[in-house]
Amino acid sequence: MSDWSRAASTRPVEDHATTVGTATGNRGLQIEEKLIFEQDSPGRCGVDLVDPPPFRTRLGGLERQGRIGLPGLSEPQIVRHFTRLSQKNYAIDSGVYPLGSCTMKHNPRLNEKLARLPGLADIHPLQPVSTVPGALALIDTLAHWLKTLTGMPAIALSPGAGAHGELCGMMSICAALEARGERRSRVLVPESAHGTNPATAAACGYAVDSVSSNPRGRVDIGALRTKLDTDVAALMLTNPNTCGLFEDEILEIAAAVHAVGAFFYCDGANFNAIVGRVRPADLGIDCMHLNLHKTFSTPHGGGGPGSGPVALAASLAPYAPLPWQARGPDGPGLVEHKEGEAQQSIGRLKGFHGQMGMFVRALAYMLSHGADGLRQVAEDAVLNANYLRVRLDSDLSPSFPGPCMHEVLFDDRFLKGTGITTLDFAKALIDEGYHPMTMYFPLIVHGALLIEPTETESKASLDEFVETLKVLAAKARFGETAFFHGAPHYTPRRRLDETAAARKLVLRWYAEPVNQQAEE
Ligand SMILES: Cc1ncc(COP(=O)(O)O)c(C=O)c1O
After folding, report:
1. In this predicted model, what pLDDT tens digit does every residue of 102-160 receive, in sequence order?
2. Which of 57, 150, 183, 237 has a 20 to 30 A CA-CA distance from 140?
3. Taking the C-alpha atoms of 224, 227, 228 and 233 in order, what is their torsion angle to the nearest 10 degrees?
4. What separation in Å is there between the alpha carbon of 289 and the centre of ligand 1?
5. How buried is 241 (Cβ within 10 angstroms: 0-12 exposed, 13-18 middle, 19+ buried)?
6. In this structure, are residues 454 and 435 in contact, taking their beta carbons and an 8 Å threshold?
């Protein structure tokens, strides 16, 4: 049984106790948490209610006969259980979170406070439009800021994540081509792209055609030109790209894409690097999603609640998903059906209007920074990444020469001949109290380590991070291979079997031990 299976099995405590060497299995104040079901005391309850008066049942004999299997715990037990679980999470509120491509930046508490105002938090999506003019005005103002920052005339706010925004954009492109009476079958995606790009294109029924990169880590424009023809529906390009580099031939790329009648989709996940500095519309982009949880600091969730608004050029605006914001004689309103101006809309992608709580936070972020403050965000994010690049230049191996944008990419050449991999290096970083950087992505360099410090980090915290990386790089150079292979040494769980963790998940708890083999 792998470490992971053991961790997730019904008997983690005894096994772990033997490895840790404490009587309890706990480590310092890190408590070895049992599953809630293992803490069950049948009959125990957090509330003490009087029995209901006798009543005549109307269930016709279908009453429940036995327990439903909920664990019996007291209120303090429940509070401790969930508090301890919450403390096992690492978060941007805990420390440096240099996960490249994810823009893990501080979520200002002001945004949280505003999102919790009863007038915003307590409105119901089914309330009559006439009772929520303030909320609609807020959505309208957010759209105005996003249009101003992107230079695009239309914004679709309902998509619930970056990938959902991609779907929205590609469906709009598909609808625009159909309206032109064209059936195109291919979408071009650079090989450095995030996996969601080819997945979205495929989900929309397109064949995905990969475009190679040049030695400078940008799209090879020669290779792109050979693939462009009237069968291409769109190019999906990330800018700055996932190597943390600005696509400096983007104007030529846009012209080449448009010359064959295709659309230029930009993955705007990395907008944090250019917000306030560059307007995507000026780069010839037709459509671009923005991840509010990255650039505009709304909290990241496990895939949600996110928000991935899509900026659309005039050629794609008629296909934007419902609902549309509208301005009537009596103030802001909504277009909710495919009629009138909205006849060609791709319809609804999501219930209601999108993630209102995220809209409030994002707008609070924009208004509290102002236009100049947002530009400063981009400049600081780029400055921080370049500070790391320069300070780590001779310890790690930068994949591409010259300045980077908001994230800096290293590969594993600095580990060559040591027997230590990118994974080993990242595990050792956990022991030092840091969440690892993104590993093995993008795929175009070997053993990638992608670091995105964001503007959140101060020079002092970057310096501490740099010193830690330098120490680890020196340990690797001095051949401390066994140390790396055993890392992490100080976490509640040691090195997991990564394959088993992904392939043999133990997701169910059974009251009685069952033959796990049979389960698998
Ligand atoms: C470049 C890029 N594109 C798309 C996405 C997908 O965004 P989301 O996670 O909001 O769906 C991400 C997410 O990290 C990304 O980094």
Report:
1. 999 999 999 999 999 999 999 998 999 889 999 999 999 999 999 999 999 999 999 99
2. 237
3. -110
4. 10
5. buried
6. no
Whether 353 contacts 323, CB under 8 Å = yes
The yes-or-no verdict on residue 201 having pLDDT over 70 is: yes
Strand partners, 265: 236, 287
DSSP 348: B
Mutation pick for ligand 1 pocket among 243, 291, 307, 452 (CB with most ligand atoms within 8 Å): 291
- Cα of 284 vs centre of ligand 1, distance in Å, is 21
Please give the Cα distance from 425 to 483 (Å, whole number): 10
Distance in angstroms between the alpha carbons of the first and the last residue of the chain: 13
Cβ neighbours around 274 below 10 Å, total: 24
Among 163, 461, 156, which Cα is nearest to 293's?
A: 163
Comparing C-alpha atoms, which of 223, 245, 156, 297 is closest to residue 442? 245
Question: pLDDT, tens digit, for every residue of 334-386?
Answer: 899 999 999 999 999 998 889 999 999 999 999 999 999 999 999 999 999 99
Q: Are 234 and 263 in contact (CB under 8 A)?
A: yes
Q: How many whole angstroms separate alpha carbon 15 and alpha carbon 140?
A: 57
What pLDDT, in 10s, does the model give residues 415-465?
999 999 999 999 999 999 999 999 999 999 999 999 999 999 999 999 999
Centroid of ligand 1 to alpha carbon of 384 (angstroms)? 21
Q: Are 279 and 293 in contact (CB under 8 A)?
A: no
Residues with a CB atom less than 6 Å from ligand 1: 101-102, 161-163, 194, 196, 238, 242, 267, 269, 291, 306, 308
**CA–CA–CA angle 172, 177, 178 (5° rounding):** 95
Instruction: Check residue 208 and give left, alpha or beta (phi > 0: left; psi -120 to 50: alpha).
Output: beta
